[in-house]
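User: Before I run my own analysis I want an independent prediction to cross-check against. Here's the chain; please return only the structure tokens and, at the end, one sentence I can use as a sanity check.
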Amino acid sequence: MFDFDEELKKLPTRPGVYIMHDGNDTIIYVGKAINLHNRVRSYFRKNIGRGPQIDKMVTQIARFEYIITDSELEALVLENNLIKEYSPRYNTMLKDDKTYPYIKVTVGEAFPRVLFSREMKKDKSRYFGPYTSAAAVKDTIELMNKLYMLRTCSRSLPREEGKDRPCLNYHIRQCMAPCQGYVSCELYREQVDKALDFLNGNYQPILKELEHKMQEASENMEFEEAIKYRDLYNSVKQVAQKQKITDSDGEDKDIIALANDENDAVVQVFFIRDGKLIGREHFYMTHVSGHERAEILLDFVKQFYAGTPFIPRELMLQEEIEDIGILERWLSTRKGNRVYIRIPKKGTKEKLVELAAKNAALVLSQDKEKIKREEGRTIGAVKEIAGLLGVEGISRMEAYDISNISGFANVGSMVVFEKGKPKRSDYRKFKIKTVSGPDDYACMKEVLTRRFVHGMEEQKELDLKELEKEFGSFTKFPDLILMDGGKGQVNIALEVLRELSIDIPVCGMVKDDNHRTRGLYYNNEEIPIDHHSEGFKLVTRVQDEAHRFAIEYHRSLRSKTQVKSVLDDIPGVGASRRKALMRQFKSIEEIKEASVEKLAEVPEIPVHIAQGIFDFFHSQKPMH
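Assistant: Structure tokens:
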């Protein structure tokens, strides 16, 4: 038993990290402290205004442990690592795990390349970015390779020079073929320097050069060349225009602001590189309930810059946060150069922070509206259906359908919706084993019996929690069964449930003469439903999904057997007689309606085979 009073007395007055565990020994919170003794003890004092979220956490702490460090900086790094490793429930967490693209120029090679990269390594290459659009990065790299005729191959040059023929890029004049020794290292380097100049934002030299070449080609009536230079000119202008100037000092900055409510927070970051706004991103923070805005900002900075390879020279924040000094030291250590954290109070920089905050608020409000609409479509629709039927506590719904073509390859489908959303991992297909010929009721009885008997057997074998984890779809019974049809299909389901002593409400999804959803059949009566309501739309989605899933399975079986049909199940009818019948009668329905005499008129069909065909169709149960 953990003795809190005794362990609190043992806490050292040194910096370090403390780790809170619950009764299951799960880590629920990780924090750092400049003085472990004071910080950890503060959680267990009464009436100090910690907020409801922290109060709730404290009631769940079964034990705590701590790790001492030599400095608060070491504690910050360790705290970040532990939060990333364990994702504790009560730590504010950065939800997004994005990696940003960079443009990498391999200047350490004799003949450098311009490459796409998702990480920035400590190598001899030069990196530009990060950028927010991978597509834009790829377009820019493609443009630069065209402009400066740089190689894209991975050959080790000059060691592999001349080993293979030049590639297509050389023949279409998009590479100078250093692999063949067609260009000197010095001349190639001049082109690389121009590319680096371009990436640093100096577009004017290449624009002038392209304009000159375009005019020269036009004057020489080399119109294809002129069009090529014109297209390149326009591409460079487009890239240049995207680089909106935001600051004149040419520094790298990240502008960070957030918007939050009781349960959610969105952080907006503007990325400024070389004084140019290259993009923006928003990030979701979870577990923010009970946390002040400054706390959320602090957690974002620690988690985001622990994971991103590029750290700018300056961070501009919306408001003051704790530990600015220690954070600057940590960021500077990671970057290898001095990093500053500022809170601008006036001028252009303050306007940028305000703009970031407005964008964050917009994203948060839009997402709230989106979530509200989505809940109406899903949970709200389920509640509406439950109200119509007078059934409480509906969460999981299962729907069933049968698919066949004149009795061939009978299959069944089971689709699952939880809280109004499809749970595709729990969908199941059934290949009918005991029914031959077109009998939907018998097929449905087999499907339902197999489904629930299987589930009951699994429930007997293992602990329920383990079963739900491993088998889920069969062990967990639905709160409502939806049948594709009316009274007949519902009665089949009720019969199966009675035989198995299972009590689950069963509802039919009734269709009109045009095969469109009309209403619900429950407790021996049809219940009308507003066709404009979310409940009706959900019923339609469930019905369509069950039908689609069954048809898809049936189609896959048909594609495997290709030309197999119900005729193949008739003794004496093989491939040649089947083809002869289809030539004469055009459809299975015509064959079913034909008399023995009509069937025997087909040259390949003897009288005794004609009699067998007639008997096969007319001794089968009618299709319901």
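Sanity check: The radius of gyration is 35 Å.
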